[in-house]
Structures are given as C-alpha cells and as structure tokens.
Write a structure and sequence with these properties.
transmembrane, single chain, 4 helices, mainly alpha, globular
C-alpha cells in the first residue's frame, strides 16, 4: 500500500462507503469479517494491554478498515471473475 493513499480523503471516503456493504455481503466469508471486527473491538476494550504503543484507537481501527476493504474487494472481484467464467 502506498503511504500517499493513506493521507487521501478520497481513499478514506471510498473505505467508509464500502465498509458497511462489504460487512453485509454474503460473498465475503465470515472469517474475513471477524478479522476486522475482533481485533478492533479488542483494541478498544483492552487498550491497557499495549500501553506503550503511541497509536490511538481510531488510527488502529482505520488501518484495520483500510486493510479489510482492500482485502474484501480483491476477494469479491476474484469471486465475480469465477462466476463470469
């Protein structure tokens, strides 16, 4: 991932628009959805487990969201290609 992409408002707009649809999509496996939700919830609930890491809860959540959207879109595109064949 390019670091310039992380600072782009257009990119984050895309991430925030796609996230709800990808979380509801039956084409995305439950395990992939849990790879976003579980670490984010754990980081928010148990912030004292990693007290010396100077990363805010929102930053960790946004990085997880970015990773999930890019991964889920790749899997969704691969699934659509298989259906089209």
């Amino acid at each position: 991932m390019k670091w310039s992409k992380i600072w782009s408002l257009r990119h984050w707009g895309h991430v925030f628009r796609r996230l709800p649809a990808l979380l509801r999509s039956p084409r995305i496996p439950l395990m992939d959805k849990l790879l976003l939700v579980v670490p984010a919830i754990l980081y928010w609930v148990l912030p004292d487990v990693l007290p010396f890491i100077p990363i805010d809860d929102m930053a960790v959540t946004m990085l997880l969201m970015n990773w999930f959207v890019s991964r889920a879109e790749r899997k969704e595109q691969a699934g659509m290609k298989q259906i089209g064949k």
